[in-house]
Amino acid sequence: MSTPQLVVHRDKELMAQAAAARLITKIVDAQASRGSASVVLTGGRNGNGLLAALATAPARDAIDWAHLDLWWGDERFLPEGDPDRNITQAREALLDSVPLDPERVHAMPASDGPYGNDADAAAAGYAEELARAAAPENHGAVPAFDVLMLGVGPDTHVASLFPELPAVRETERTVVGVHGAPKPPPTRITLTLPAIRSAREVWLLAAGEDKANAAAMALSGAGEIQAPAAGAQGRSRTLWLLDSAAASQLPRSLYPPASP
Ligand SMILES: O=C1O[C@H](COP(=O)(O)O)[C@@H](O)[C@H](O)[C@H]1O
């Protein structure tokens, strides 16, 4: 696993724009070397802010949208089209305005979808979809995502892995149902830490004062059961993208020297 690297931007708008530019470059590079790219999206304010910035980025059309696989790190288990679903918000922020191949948009199931209201069955179904997309060298579990993005919650949750809940302790399955989440809605579907850690790069997004304590805790040696963000690492790179408010409680030893 990779040691976290930090980039701190002046404010959340600049962070979103810089992260969007970084993502464009990453996708274009992956498409140039492998013909396609795979990205895992996150919900939440910072994830949607990045997508909105990408929608207006001058270089967005450098991406070959038809050869981009989109997956989700987690989903709120609600009916299709519900405004609180992460995919509904992502569609509004970006996805509806770019020429994606619908076959490559891998939404997590909705609560009125093929698995009905059974979040555990829906999670198992998504795990099968991931396994089908994995190449043999990925050991059959999940594809080797180029970039997996995670918003960091004020309580250090990432995806729908909340401190101390069973999902964050999962070591075998790649996707699980979450019941009794402390943040609404209580029922969710989430990638697990083993699935997250199979990504080439993991980017954690944290902007705003309410994320300062979470960032400091996760980056100061807390355990992943108490602070799930601490367990989110990529195989090649783990990148924390922060704004100065979210970085304000980091120990000085971690604070990067230059902060654009
Ligand atoms: O509920 C969720 O929250 C987290 C963090 O969201 P934020 O608004 O505090 O940035 C998000 O990453 C996750 O995908 C989402 O389902």
From TrEMBL:
Reported function: Hydrolysis of 6-phosphogluconolactone to 6-phosphogluconate.
Listed name of the protein: 6-phosphogluconolactonase
UniProt lineage: Bacteria, Bacillati, Actinomycetota, Actinomycetes, Kitasatosporales
GO biological processes: carbohydrate metabolic process; pentose-phosphate shunt
Similarity annotation: Belongs to the glucosamine/galactosamine-6-phosphate isomerase family. 6-phosphogluconolactonase subfamily.
Catalytic activity: 6-phospho-D-glucono-1,5-lactone + H2O = 6-phospho-D-gluconate + H(+)
InterPro entries per UniProt: 6-phosphogluconolactonase_DevB, 6PGL, Glc/Gal-6P_isomerase, NagB/RpiA_transferase-like
Keyword Transferase appears in the UniProt entry: no
EC numbers on record: 3.1.1.31
